[in-house]
Amino acid sequence: MKSKPANFTAWFFALIFAQAFVLDPVLLGVNYAPLVYVLLLIFLPNYWPSWVVLLAGFIIGLIIDLFYLSGGIHAAASLVVCFLRPNFIRTGYKGTLKPNELVIENESFDSLIVYIFLTTAIHHFVLLAFVVFDWARIGWFLSAWGTNTLLTFVTCTLLVIITRKGRL
Hints:
68% of the residues lie in helices and 0% in strands. It is built from 7 helices and no strands. α4 crosses α5, α5 runs antiparallel to α6 and α6 (109-131) runs antiparallel to α7 (138-163).
């Protein structure tokens, strides 16, 4: 997943289509479905200014909200993830001196896995906190968060493995 505009645009439409029409939990008839659009937030170019990353994250989340009629929860979760993205990059890629010059596709697979997991876990936590957070339902909240995070993490990791050229 290079950060070239045409390639990113193709990934954008493919992941949005897959999320809206293939992996919709209502269409599948299940409670949990992976949110693969998180990969768009993960692979946003690092050289973009932070305000562009925040705007892109908001627009990506808003598009998902329009398909799911979810009232802005995906936009809010995407915005939080884009805001925390530099911290996730510093945590996942500890040896990187200049995060803005980091090309995620060329870095080690282990660091990418940590980065994907952190982004997915925080995104789903914020998303589910906005959907239903009630101290009386904390058990359900943690169960849904863990299940959705694991499902999305495994799906995103498999997508990265399948589409990654070269080494793991």
